[in-house]
Amino acid sequence: RNQSDERWAREIAANVRGAEIVMYSTQSCIYCARARAWLDTHRIAFTECDIERNSACLARYQALGAQGTPTFDVRGVRLLGFSPQDVAEALRHPAPGATPNPTAAGSGAQP
Description:
This protein is α+β, with helices and mostly antiparallel strands.
């Protein structure tokens, strides 16, 4: 399990650019806490949006048609629950509106 986690963490870290991972969460959600801990432990950049404390987050969460937390928006792909494998697979798709440019890999600007 740990070796698999490390593999997914490396793939996610290599492919994520800026704020491409958004986690919609609540304070009382134990699964959100576990996802947050995994992402933090593996130093994966993500944005957390608390739907109970932030009305703009709630509006975006509802617009996604989300039905539970954590819900992730990864490059426009909605994921219910947290799976490092699912996040890695979502990051394999080009970002909406992006044009493939292999020479620009790794040069993404941070917000």
